[in-house]
Amino acid sequence: MHGDTLRQVVRISSPSGLHLRPLTAFAQRAQQFQARIAVTKEDRSVDGKSPFEMFLMVSPPGVELTIEATGPDAQAALDALTALLQEMTAEDNGQPNDSSK
What is the mean pLDDT of the chain? Predict the structure, then answer.
């Protein structure tokens, strides 16, 4: 299963979009995994482990991003990164963070 690519679509619902703080946290979390992480918006794909590339892919509120993970820990990476974006969206929307992580 090391060659399988897992995908998850995430809608950015934060009123601020995916700005510097969350995209940096995303890239840092992605770097903790062996899996290759790609983030795609429309027809543009960037390295999810690179804060700079993530920043260049402007992600305003309402945009849908596809997170792709390929490698031995792809499922764990996808789960962690999806959860991170959901937590940050909740924080930006003024909702309490009820995550145990």
Answer: 88
Give the number of residues written for the chain: 101
CATH number of the domain that 33 lies in?
3.30.1340.10
**Catalytic residue numbers?**
19
What's the CA gap between 51 and 48, in Å, rounded?
7
pLDDT in tens, 69-101: 999 999 999 999 999 988 887 676 665 544 444
Is 19 buried (19+), middle (13-18) or exposed (0-12) by CB count in 10 A? middle
Structure tokens, 9: 């679509």
What distance in Å separates the CA atoms of residue 37 and residue 72, rounded to the nearest whole number? 12
